Amino acid sequence: MLTVRETEEGVSFAIRVLPRSSKCEIAGLQGNALKIRITAAPVEGRANEACIRFLASLFNVNKNRIAIEAGHKSKNKRVSIAGLTCGDVRAVLSEDLFHF
Description:
Radius of gyration: 12 Å
Helix content: 10-25%
């Protein structure tokens, strides 16, 4: 299940990025992380940028509200989104993915 933590600024959760995919999409869960397919290659931060753009589009927020907290050079990352609550995340994603 996806573990979403509320912080003072918003929410934080783990993601697993699969670069060089055919399209950008949510691919389910891997452990307690949201698995995301990204078309960009993991070169010079392109996959991180694409991941932030995808999450901004998915949650309908500005890109500057999304930060990669950990895992800048790894497939496993922790992201934070300012201004969202666990309920906002639940409204966007399927409820069977969650553990709050």
